[in-house]
Design brief:
Layout (H helix, E strand, L loop, with lengths): L1 E7 L4 H12 L1 H8 L1 E7 L3 H10 L4 E5 L6 H14 L4 E5 L18 E4 L1 E3 L14 H10 L20 E3 L7 H9 L3 H6 L4 E8 L8 H12 L1 H4 L6 E6 L7 H9 L1 E5 L9 H8 L3 E5 L4 E3 L11 E3 L6 H10 L1 H20 L2 H10 L1
Parallel strand pairs: 1-2, 1-3, 3-4, 4-5, 5-7, 8-9, 8-10, 10-11, 11-13
Antiparallel strand pairs: 6-12
Helix pairs in contact: 3-4, 6-11
Pfam family, one: Glyco_trans_1_2
Protein name: Spore protein YkvP/CgeB glycosyl transferase-like domain-containing protein
Organism: Rippkaea orientalis (strain PCC 8801 / RF-1)
């Protein structure tokens, strides 16, 4: 039997979602991989090293807080690797983007897990404005300012293959449950699809408008032909964090929507993507073709509808699928099938096996 130590700072729903599969697959991890899991919440970086000393384990998963300084994270990982050369060290990156500020730890870890990573690992050697392919696109296309924003770091040559997709937001326990509950004739009867297009979004902080605000506002602006047309029933808005629609309204509306438009946020993948699939909505989203992620509900034309990153074709795609319901239903059903398949086949357990063997 192998002991696994999970050291993470659980500060929000995202960090919690990264640990939850270890809980609901605890028995399978024991039965199939002979692993026992011990989770310890960390408050400081120094605790990582202290807990590695205190608790004996063959494998350590480390998930720091995303605000930790990269140089300090590198130093801690370097010391742990020096002290425990035979331990498997798996780094769970807290950054939402396909890029990261923590690639300097690559020489000291066995795997570097991302919620989503570039399919072409050589992209990690590109010099992107802002640190990612997405921010580079925004800088070149819309001249957005990234002088104060950089979410990248240099990947040491030869270590890019240690970067691999772990598990994304879709493994959150609440979505696993929602996927099981939100099907059948009774669900459909209780949640009639009386909203054509849904796109409720946060613009972030009112006092700190950054590229994130500009990009998401452009999505709302692009959807204006639908918002201003009384022939369509829509729930489309962008709001700052102090004036968002109540969560009860958000949930009621998305469950009643035919189409969910889901722009990128800080990272490419969003909670909204998985809500769309859980509630049998057609997901329309900027192309994810450059990424590798799991559960992979992002197969263009099969599980979601891809649009241009500048939203130039988003209205066209919405109108097409509102008029071609049979095609929309095919994609919706495929997306649910792919998502359910991830859980039914315990693909998370397979990912952990790939990490440690």
């Amino acid at each position: 039997m192998k002991k696994v130590l999970f050291l993470g700072k659980r500060v929000d729903t995202i960090s919690q979602a990264q640990y939850e599969p270890f809980i609901y697959y605890r028995q399978q991890l024991l039965d199939e991989l002979n692993l026992t899991i011990k989770y310890l919440n960390i408050e400081t970086l120094n605790e990582i090293k202290q807990l590695c000393q205190k608790y004996d384990s063959e494998i350590v998963f480390i998930q720091p807080f995303w605000r930790e300084k990269p140089d300090e994270v590198e130093m801690i990982l370097r010391e742990i690797r020096s002290d425990y050369p035979d331990r498997k060290l798996i780094f769970i990156d807290p950054w939402s983007q396909a890029s990261s500020k923590y690639f300097k730890v690559l020489p000291y870890v066995d795997k570097f897990l991302k919620r989503q990573c570039y399919k072409n690992r050589q992209d990690y050697h590109q010099k992107f404005i802002g640190g990612s392919r997405f921010t580079h696109f925004l800088a070149n296309t819309w001249n957005l300012d990234f002088e104060q924003w950089y979410v990248g770091s240099e990947v040491p040559q030869g270590y890019e293959e240690r970067i691999m997709p772990g598990w994304n937001l879709g493994t959150a326990k609440r979505y696993k449950k929602a996927l099981q509950r939100s099907k059948g004739w009774l669900w459909s009867r209780l949640h009639p699809k009386n909203i054509d297009v849904f796109c409720r979004m946060s613009f972030g902080n009112r006092d700190n408008k950054e590229w994130y605000y500009e990009y998401r506002k452009s999505a709302i602006d692009a959807l204006d032909p639908l918002s201003s047309n009384s022939n369509y029933r829509v729930a489309i808005s962008g709001s700052f964090v102090d004036s968002l629609v109540p969560n009860s309204q958000y949930q009621r509306e998305i469950k009643s929507s035919k189409i969910v438009v889901s722009p990128f946020g800080w990272g490419e993948g969003c909670w909204r993507d998985f809500e769309a699939v859980c509630y049998d909505c057609l997901l329309i989203k900027p192309s994810m073709a450059h990424l590798e992620t799991d559960p992979n509900i992002f197969i263009e034309g099969e599980t979601y509808v891809a649009v241009n990153w500048d939203f130039s074709d988003v209205v066209e795609k919405c109108l097409y699928y509102l008029e071609h319901n049979d095609e929309a239903q095919r994609i919706i059903k495929n997306a649910r099938r792919v998502y359910e398949h991830y859980f039914e086949n315990t693909k998370f357990v397979q990912t952990i096996k790939h990490c440690i063997y």
